[in-house]
């Protein structure tokens, strides 16, 4: 695995802010890593044991916040990276949370719904001393969803003996999740995309867009683009490959084709392409919305897009990022581009604590305000300091986290 782009950007931001290696180390090191083995009864009556962890990176600005993933390849280094990204992302969005992330090493496809429910409840039992609405607020991540969050909320409430809606976010709206959460990451990304198109003075119409990954986030952005005549979606892909049509894809038909056929292959009036080919298409905007480490030293020279919007976490390696920067390609970093999800998770937590629920328009309006404030500040810093958008985003977030730590007395020395 190549070094993630965020580590190099964070270091550059720390140097610009005059922070020492020791201080940077303090800001990069997680507060704690908690591990547990979760034993559950299988439907067969046998017992199975799964290793689980929660990484709590930094709580200087508020409770730890971050998803829990169920995946066979859950590994502590990856969860540490993702928990760190959550710290910087919450600080960019200026919401009162720190960063955390959790996972269970399991292939969820091999478990029945009842076994998954026992595992979700087991996770809460194993970590109950360390998580909670004022300590660490979980959310869904890879292979967990609103049903998982409903079970976790119920288990936590059962243990505590009273209703605790604010224990997790990403709950079903019927169980007091927030309206607008499902589309929040895509909508936040669209607000930032519009801002960057204006900032970069891209006047060409329509703006041609390619999206890698047609899941929750990529599919949501595709729908939003189809409602905006300034944009034309020309290519999309999923894990099995993609479709490309230079004159534009009909988004509702693409989504329906994938739903019916299980893949994009054979979508009419388009060419089938591979994921590698999608990344190198001659488009205006490229949106990685699937996996980490998609653009690296091996393909960054061949990227033709003028603007890359990182809706996935960590899709570009440090060496890939350096090549893109040297070629003048603008990259909107993940900690800004996909911060809409955790921002509306924050709104969900606020609504649960108030017991007072907002209409979708109010959620989206507040999301737009926070996303644009963050985007405008990052553009300003990038222009003033002559740095990339990624380094500018880390300058903003590092300064906020660093200040909170000094005010709490957790970092001492120069201010
Ligand atoms: P998802 O599981 O709904 O969708 C993932 C998509 O990627 C699927 O369409 C899948 O087919 C596709 N995919 C998988 N392997 C691929 C490959 N090799 N090439 C191309 N496509 C491939 O997941 P999601 O919730 O949409 O999340 C996507 C990314 O966005 C992840 O990196 C996630 O961490 C990040 N993210 C999600 C949210 C959120 O609110 N869901 C918030 C912030 C960041």
Mind sketching the topology for me?
Blueprint (H helix, E strand, L loop, with lengths): L4 H12 L4 H8 L3 E10 L5 E12 L5 E8 L4 H18 L4 E8 L7 H15 L8 E5 L5 H15 L20 H19 L7 E6 L3 H11 L4 E8 L2 E4 L6 H11 L9 E3 L1 H5 L5 E4 L18 E3 L8 H9 L3 E3 L1 H4 L2 H15 L5 H26 L3 H20 L7
Parallel strand pairs: 3-4, 3-5, 6-7, 6-10, 10-11, 11-12
Antiparallel strand pairs: 1-2, 2-4, 7-8, 8-9
The structure holds nicotinamide-adenine-dinucleotide.
| Shape descriptor | globular
Give the uncertain stretches in residue-range form.
Answer: none
Taking all residues together, what is the mean pLDDT? 96
Helix content: 40-55%
* Known CATH architecture of one domain: 3-Layer(aba) Sandwich
If strands are numbered along the chain, what order do they take across the biggest sheet? Answer: 9-8-7-6-10-11-12
| Annotation field: number of helices | 14
Radius of gyration, in Å, reads 21 Å
Give the name of the CATH superfamily of one domain.
Leucine Dehydrogenase, chain A, domain 1
Q: How many strands appear in the DSSP assignment?
A: 12
CATH first level of one domain: which class? Answer: Alpha Beta
Structure notes:
This protein is of the alpha/beta class and 415 residues long. The chain has a domain at 32-175: Rossmann fold (3-Layer(aba) Sandwich), CATH 3.40.50.10860. Helices cover 45% and strands 18% of the residues. The protein is built from 14 helices and 12 strands. It has helices at 5-16, 21-28, 76-93, 113-127, 146-160, 181-199, 216-226, 251-261, 275-279, 318-326, 334-337, 340-354, 360-385, 389-408, and strands at 32-41, 47-58, 64-71, 98-105, 136-140, 207-212, 231-238, 241-244, 271-273, 285-288, 307-309, 330-332. The strands form 2 sheets. Strands 9-8-7-6-10-11-12 form a 7-stranded mixed β-sheet, sandwiched between helices. The chain has a 5-stranded mixed β-sheet with strand order 1-2-4-3-5. A hairpin with a 5-residue loop joins strand 1 (32-41) and strand 2. Helix 1 (5-16) crosses helix 14, helix 4 (113-127) packs across helix 5 and helix 13 crosses helix 14. It is globular. It comes from candidate division Kazan bacterium RIFCSPLOWO2_01_FULL_48_13. This is Glutamate dehydrogenase. It holds the Pfam family ELFV_dehydrog. Keywords: NAD, Nucleotide-binding, Oxidoreductase. Substrate binds at residues 65, 89, 345.
């Amino acid at each position: 695995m190549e070094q993630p782009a965020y580590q190099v950007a964070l270091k550059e931001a720390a140097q610009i802010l005059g922070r020492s290696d020791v201080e940077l180390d303090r800001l990069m090191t997680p507060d704690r890593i908690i591990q547990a083995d979760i034993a559950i009864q299988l439907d067969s009556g046998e017992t199975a044991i799964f290793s689980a962890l929660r990484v709590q990176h930094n709580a200087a600005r508020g409770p730890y916040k971050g998803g829990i993933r169920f995946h066979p390849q859950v590994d502590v280094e990856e969860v540490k990276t993702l928990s760190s990204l959550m710290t910087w992302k919450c600080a960019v969005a200026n919401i009162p949370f720190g960063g955390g992330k959790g996972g269970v090493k399991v292939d969820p496809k091999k478990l029945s719904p009842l076994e998954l429910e026992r595992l979700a409840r087991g996770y809460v039992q194993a970590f109950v001393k360390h998580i909670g609405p004022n300590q660490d607020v979980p959310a869904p991540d890879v292979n967990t969803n609103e049903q998982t969050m409903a079970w976790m909320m119920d288990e936590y409430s059962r243990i505590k003996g009273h209703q605790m809606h604010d224990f997790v976010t990403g709950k079903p709206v019927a169980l007091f999740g927030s309206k607008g959460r499902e589309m929040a990451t895509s909508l936040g990304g669209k607000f930032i995309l519009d801002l960057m198109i204006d900032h970069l003075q891209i006047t060409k119409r329509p703006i041609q867009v390619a999206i890698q990954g047609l899941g929750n986030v990529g599919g949501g952005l595709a729908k939003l683009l189809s409602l905006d005549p300034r944009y034309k979606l020309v290519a999309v892909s999923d894990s099995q490959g993609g479709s490309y049509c230079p004159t534009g894809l009909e988004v509702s038909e693409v989504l329906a084709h994938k739903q019916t056929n299980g893949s994009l292959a054979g979508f009419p009036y388009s060419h089938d392409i591979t994921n590698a080919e999608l990344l190198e298409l001659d488009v205006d905007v490229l949106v990685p919305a699937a996996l980490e480490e998609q653009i690296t030293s091996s393909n960054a020279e061949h990227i033709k897009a003028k603007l890359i919007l990182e809706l996935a976490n960590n899709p570009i390696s440090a060496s890939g990022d350096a090549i893109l920067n040297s070629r003048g390609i603008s990259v909107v970093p993940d900690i800004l581009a996909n911060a809409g999800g955790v921002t509306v998770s924050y709104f969900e937590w606020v609504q649960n604590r108030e017991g007072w629920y907002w209409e979708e328009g109010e959620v989206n309006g507040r999301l737009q305000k926070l996303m644009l404030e963050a985007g405008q500040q990052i553009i300003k810093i990038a222009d003033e300091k002559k740095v990339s958008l990624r380094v500018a985003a880390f300058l903003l977030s590092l300064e906020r986290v660093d200040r909170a730590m000094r005010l709490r007395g957790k970092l001492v020395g120069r201010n």
